[in-house]
Amino acid sequence: MTILDKILKQKKLEVRELKAIYSGHKTESSKKRVSLYNHFIHTENMSVIAEVKRASPSKGIINPDVDPVAQAKAYVTAGAGAISVLTDRQFFKGSMADLSAVAQAVDVPLLCKDFIIDEVQIDAAKDHGASIILLIAAALPETRLKELYKYAQSQQLDILFEVHNEEEAETALNIGANIIGINNRNLKTFEVDLAVTERVASLLQQTDCLFISESGIKTKEDVERVREAGAKGILVGETLMRSSNIQETMSEIRIPFSKVVE
Q1: Which class for 24: exposed (0-12), middle (13-18), buried (19 or more C-beta within 10 A)?
Q2: Under 8 Å between Cβ of 32 and 221
Q3: 175-203: b or e for each residue (b if 16 or more CB lie within 10 Å)?
Q4: Mean pLDDT calculated for residue range 50-67
Q5: 20 to 30 A Cα–Cα from 1, which one of 43, 104, 139, 235?
Q6: Domains in the chain, start-ordered, CATH in brackets?
C-alpha cells in the first residue's frame, strides 16, 4: 500500500465521521477574497502560495510548535500572494481550527490543503474560511473529480487541480480546470523531481491555465527553473516553515519574470 493509499483510506473514515457530526450550516465568510487566478495571472514577480505545515509523511515533524496565525501573517507581510493551510490531522498534524484561525487573520486567497474526496469536506472548508480547495487527480476517477470540481464552483470556490504527470494534466484540461498545480512530489513514493514541472508544463503552454509548481522548491535556482517552464506561481511549505528569516527567504523566491529587451 502506497502512502497515498493509506491517506485515502483514512480520509474515507474521516468523511464518514464528518457526515455524522457535521451540521451542514452554510456561513458566508466576512472576508471577500480575490480570485487566485486573477491575483496570480498578471503579476510581475513569481507569486507564492505560502504553506502552514507542521509535518508531512516524507519529512516527519517540521515545526510542531508553529503558531498558524503568526506564521500566516509573517507570510503576507513578506509578500505571499496566498496562504495554504494543511488541515489533515493524522499525516500532517493540521486541523480545521488552524484554517479558521488563519482565515480570520489574513485577507489573501486561502487554500484548504487536504485530500478531498467528498462534498462534505468542501462544505467544511468553505465554512472555515477557505476560498480555494484542492483536488488531486491521483486520488479519484475522472467522473468523481468532475463532480467535486463542479460542486466547488457552485460554492464560489477556486479549485487548485493537482496533477503529477501528463495523463493527469489531460484529465485536468478535460474537466476545465483553469488553475493547475504540478506537484513535483510522487504521491506514491513521495520522491521529488523538478523535472516533473518541466515535462508536464509542455501540455499547458498554449492554454489559458494558471499553473503552479508545487513541492521541492528550496532555492532561487529552483524557482528560475520552474519559471522557465512557464509557472506563474509556486507553492512552498517546508522551505518557509524551516526558514529563520521569512522575509529574506520570500525575497529570494519571489523572482521577477523576465522582461523582453526591445
Answers
A1: exposed
A2: no
A3: bebbbbbbbbbbbeeeebebebbbebbeb
A4: 88
A5: 235
A6: 3-20+34-253 (3.20.20.70)
- Structure letter (DSSP) for residue 244: S
For the segment 22-45, what is each residue's pLDDT rounded down to a tens digit?
876 655 555 789 999 999 998 999
Q: Report the 3 state secondary structure along 28-62.
A: CCCCCCCCHHHHHHCCCECEEEEEECCEECCCEEC
Q: Which of these, 44, 97, 112, 52, lies nearest to 76 by C-alpha position? A: 52
Give one DSSP letter per residue of 103-140, joined into a string: HHH--S-EEEES---SHHHHHHHHHTT-SEEEEEGGGS
Q: How confident is the model at residue 261 (pLDDT cuts 50, 70, 90)?
A: very low
- State the average pLDDT over residues 209-227: 96
Among 44-58, 125-139, 179-193, 227-241, name the one with the lowest average pLDDT: 179-193
CA 47, 138, 228 angle in degrees (round to 5)?
35
Cell of residue 13, nine digits = 473514515
pTM: 0.93
Q: Could you give the residue numbers annotated as active site?
A: 51, 53, 113, 162, 183, 214-215
Share of the chain above pLDDT 90, in %: 82
Contact 233, 223 (CB under 8 A): no
**Residue 152 contacts residue 117 (beta carbons within 8 Å):** no
Name 249's Cβ contacts closer than 8 Å, sequence gap at least 6: 78, 239, 240, 243
